[in-house]
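haha ok so turns out i had the wrong file open the whole time. this is the CORRECT one, sorry everyone. sequence first:
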Amino acid sequence: MFKKSAAAVMVLASLLLCGTAFAKTEIKLSNQFPPSHHVSKGLVVFAEKVAEHSKGELSVKIFDSAQLFKDTEIVEALQDALIDAGLVPVNKWSGMIPTADVFEMPFVFKDLESPKKFLSAGADKILDEEFQKKGVKTLFWVDYGYIQFFNNKHPLKMPADFQGLTMRTFSSGDAETLRVLGAAPTVMSSSEMYMALQRGTVDGATTGMPAAVSRKVHEVQKYMTKANYTTAQFVVQGNLDWWNSLSEAHRDAVHKAGLDAEEWIRGAIAQSENEAEKVILEAGVEIYSPNAEEHAAFVKATEPVRTSFAEKTGDLGKTLIEMAIEASK
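then structure:
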C-alpha cells in the first residue's frame, strides 16, 4: 500500500513539474490606441512573434483603448510594476528625462526614415540607459509618423496665423512649439481630445493623421496644415525587474519579436498616412501644404525651441540633436 502511494505521489509530482515547465508565461501589455490604429496592429504582430520566437512559452495579452492605463499614467504604472509592459509616448518621460524631448523638436527629422537612422546610430542605447536608471527597460521603438496642425478657425499658412488660438497638444515639448508660434497650448490626453474639440474647449489640436481618423478628429475640425513639423515617437517598455526576471532565452525572444514589430510598423506608416489623408479630405477638411517660403518661416519661428532644448539638456542633448540632424541628411 505504501509503495503504491509513494509511486502515485511521484507520478503526480512529475506531472506538476511537466505542467509548470510547459505553462505559458503571459505578458500583459497596455495600449492607449484603439485596435484600428496601425500601431495597435503592430502590437498584434509583436504578440504573434513573441509566441513564435519563444516556441509558445510566452504569450502577450494586449489591452487596447486605455482599458488599463491612459498615456498619462503608463510611465508610473511601469515603474510601480502595475503592468509588465506598455506602449509609452516618449514625451511622457520628459519631466524625468529631459533629453527624451529630442523627438519633439520641430523640423529636425526631415522624413519618415530619419528616426530609424537616428536610433540605429546609437540614440537607442543612450536613451535606454536613461530609462533603466528610472526602472524601465526599452523593448522596442515605435515610429508614429508625422504630426500635423488641425484647427476650426482658419487655414494655418504662416506662424502669424496661430495668434489667439487655443490648441490641444500632446506634450510639454510640443507645447513649446505652439507657444513660440503664438498659440495657447493645453496638454491633453489623446482620449480626451475629441470631446474638447467638439465642445470648443480648444480651437485646434496637434496629432498625426492616422490618430486623427482613429479619434474622429476630422469630424469636428475644418482645417489641417500638412507641415510635417515633427515625428512623435513611442516606445514599448517593460518594468526593469520584470525584464530581469525573464530567462535569457525569453529575453532574446522578446527582443527578436520587437525588431520584427518595429519593421512592420515602419512599413505600415506611409500607407496608413495616405489612407488617413484620403479619409480626412473626403470628410471635407481643407488641407493646406506650406510652400518653401512658408516652410522656411516656420523653421525660423521655431528656432527658440531647439535652442532651449540644447541649453536645458547640456552635452547629452546637444549630442542627440547633432545625431538627429545627421540622420536627416
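The chain has eleven helices and nine strands.
again sry for the mixup
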